[in-house]
Amino acid sequence: MDKRALIIGATGIVGRNLFEHLQTHGDWSIAGLSRGRTPAPAGMESITADLTSASSVADALKDQEFTHVFFTAWSRQATEAENIRVNGAMVSNVLDALGPSGAITHAALVTGLKHYLGPFEAYAKGNVPITPFREEQGRQPVDNFYYEQEDRLFDAAGQFGFGWSVHRPHTIIGYAVGNAMNMGVTLAVYATLCKATGEPFVFPGSAAQWNGLTDMTDARLLARQLEWAATSPMARDEAFNVVNGDVFRWKWMWERIAGYFGIEPAPFDGETRPLENRMQHAGKAWADIAARHALAEADIDKLASWWHTDADLGRPMEVLTDMSKSRKAGFLDYQSTPDAFFELFDRLKAERIIPA
User: Fold this and answer.
1) Is a pLDDT exceeding 70 seen at residue 314?
2) Are 103 and 68 in contact (CB under 8 A)?
3) Mean local confidence (pLDDT), 11-26
4) Alpha carbons 63 and 354: distance in angstroms, whole number
5) Distance between CA atoms of residues 281 and 295, nearest Å
6) Is 110 strand, coil or helix?
7) Which pLDDT score is estimated for 82?
8) Deepest in the core among 62, 155, 232, 295, taking most CB within 10 A?
9) What is the mean pLDDT of residues 302-312?
């Protein structure tokens, strides 16, 4: 059987970039499974199902066979207990439907650095491992839906006899619209608003993030690691961190993002000023900008994820990731983080998401 991929969450920031990568690299047949709320990328076979429903998934995948499954979606719930119940079931629903065919050779799960930090409601309340985070540091003693998803993946792999990989990116930079975890697009929208309204371009995060070292993950690099792990014997049954390979301080990066948009960054006074509090009434200003520039999306809520950007930039501790395990296994790719931002901003202009 040729390489036939199923991307769970194909319209999100990871799934979309993975599709674009597989479409242009190698001999892949690709389908995407999603709720159908966002149009699938052109050229993708689209399968619609409610991932939280075992019967809906089973019906949608009836008589389907895939050699590779990529889990790039999650569903945010009110509590971590609900996150565990819902997101764990999503993994099982797909693998229980496809596993009996015997066609799956590899399944990949994308989680993130909350594996080390803990979930949002218990953020960094445990004994956070010493940075840079390394895969062998293990799990935190708190409830975490990432752990449940991993366990469901491991159980299915043992039952149906396929290989697996787990991928832990830092904050992801990449093109997607309607995504709940998208700092790059959020910052582009914020900078565009500041330029149009004359409001100061204020860093919303903590002093620890402003002054400390950090790293990020380009969605395109993550896509390359996902394909590598799905096809490399050295990556079978392993978990990997994945970041660009450079480090920076936000006190340096903030000025460069401001420069791209032709605005002056406001001086940072050490106080955290979350975007979610300050952007509650930005919808009308964005709608006016969209009308004036004939933009493709006038609904700011489909572009900006203020809460998630606040969570990342408001961390009270250093968050830095080690990539040695991937390097030793053969994944050597690198991506400049400033270039990742600027190339995303260029694409947002080309797609008429922000003004050119």
Assistant:
1) yes
2) no
3) 93
4) 42
5) 19
6) strand
7) 96
8) 295
9) 93
The two tokens of residue 188 are 């582009």
Confidence at residue 123, expressed as pLDDT on a 0 to 100 scale: 60
Active site residues: 114, 146
Side chain identity at residue 194, one-letter code: C
The sign of the torsion formed by the CA atoms of 253, 257, 260, 264 equals: negative
Residue 86 has pLDDT above 80, yes or no: yes
Q: What is the DSSP string of 33-50?
A: EE-SSSPPPTT-EEEE--
For 47, residues 6+ apart whose C-beta sits below 8 A from its C-beta are 6, 31, 32, 33, 34, 60, 61, 64
What is the overall mean pLDDT for the chain? 94
Q: Which fold has domain 3-169?
A: Rossmann fold (3.40.50)
Q: How far apart are CA 229 and CA 238, in angstroms?
A: 9
- Contacting residues for 316 by C-beta, under 8 A, at least 6 apart: 124, 206, 208
The amino acid at residue 268 is: F
For residue range 116-147, list pLDDT tens digits in order: 988 766 665 556 788 999 999 989 888 999 99
Reply yes or no: is the peptide bond before residue 274 cis, omega within 30 of 0.
no
68 band by pLDDT with thresholds 50, 70 and 90:
very high
Rounded CA gap, 275 and 183, in Å? 12
Instruction: Name the DSSP class of 245.
Output: S
d(CA 37, CA 206): 34
Q: What is the pLDDT of residue 43?
A: 86
Q: How far apart are CA 152 and CA 90, in angstroms?
A: 9
Domain range summary for the chain, segments of one domain joined by + = 3-169, 177-214+247-317+336-351
User: Is the model's pLDDT at 37 over the cut of 80?
Assistant: no
The total of other beta-carbon atoms located within 10 Å of residue 342's CB is 15
The answer on pLDDT for 40 being more than 90 is no
- Cβ neighbour number for residue 54 with a 10 Å cutoff: 16
- The H or E element that residue 137 is part of is none
* C-alpha–C-alpha distance, residues 282 and 315, integer Å: 24
State whether the Cα torsion 337-339-340-342 is positive or negative. positive
SS3 158: helix
